[in-house]
Write a structure and sequence with these properties.
There is one protein chain. By secondary structure, the chain is an alpha+beta fold. It contains four helices and 13 strands. Strands 1-8-9-10-11-12-2-3-4-5-6-7-13 form a 13-stranded mixed sheet. It is globular. The termini are close together.
């Protein structure tokens, strides 16, 4: 299993999926380990029409922190899941899981700390199961924490095309996301079918988004403006991950 290669492919796929907008003929891109499965239909919901998409972007611009959970299918039939709590200062805490292996991450300033679970550490050479420290500019670090930045991009681009033009769709009915009434905006495009769910009560936050082509992707947003802790592992538990990710020797056995 190549963690680096699989994560990079997943990050690229999510970036493409999340960057376009919900519109009748536009593309949308649009995740939680089973969390989006909690999105359930309701009999009715109050809607303010397509203005909700514009309002959701305005509301997102004032948010200082958010939690995004995601789930997406991989080309090999597997699944990538994860969660990221992120703020405007660039701090981010979360995890990703694929193939039964989980990697926790912390990003603060220009540094990323990666902590594999036992199933992953057992397959790593020269690591000893401890936390790896990488520059935030390291390719592997960027791949694993890319979802932190995509969360902000998604909130800011709801209702916008790839070129930034406003494309207002029509509401497609009511939903509930974790007990909050929402309005669904659907789009069917050349490369993807997608749905955005915007809160119809309280602040008009984008609560969830999903796409079914080219791959199934589900994203859910929550904990708007709720502070989260950024805990950095003590130096005694940290090893330099630079030689492991990018050195001449392979990181994974059998790679």
């Amino acid at each position: 299993m190549s963690i680096r290669r699989n994560r990079a492919a997943a990050a690229v796929a999510l970036s493409v999926l999340l960057s376009a907008a919900p519109a009748g003929c536009g593309q949308v891109h649009g995740a939680d380990e089973r969390a989006v499965a909690s999105v359930a239909p309701v009999v009715s919901a109050s809607a303010r029409g397509s203005d909700l998409l514009r309002e959701s972007r305005a509301a997102a611009a004032e948010v200082r922190s958010v939690r995004a959970t995601f789930r997406m299918d991989r080309a090999d039939g597997g699944e990538l899941t994860g969660e990221a709590s992120t703020d405007r200062a660039g701090n981010c805490v979360g995890w990703t899981r694929e193939g039964g292996a989980r990697m926790d991450f912390v990003r603060r300033g220009g540094t990323v700390w990666l902590t594999p679970d036992e199933s992953l550490a057992d397959r790593m050479d020269r690591l000893g199961g401890r936390t790896m420290k990488l520059s935030a500019d390291n390719e592997t670090a960027r791949d694993l924490t890319g979802f932190c930045d995509e969360a902000w991009n998604s909130l800011a681009s709801a209702g916008l095309s790839d070129l930034g033009a406003e494309i207002l769709g029509s509401p497609e009915g009511g939903r509930e996301v974790d007990g909050v009434k929402a309005v669904a905006f659907k789009s069917v495009g050349v490369t993807t079918d997608a749905e955005h769910l915007v809160a119809a009560e309280g602040r008009p936050y984008l609560l969830a988004m999903s796409a079914t082509r080219p791959a199934r992707v589900e994203v859910k947003f929550g904990d708007f403006d709720r502070p989260f802790q950024v805990v950095v592992p003590p130096p005694s538990e940290v090893v330099d991950g630079g030689p492991l990710f990018g050195g001449p020797k392979p990181l994974m056995k059998g790679r």
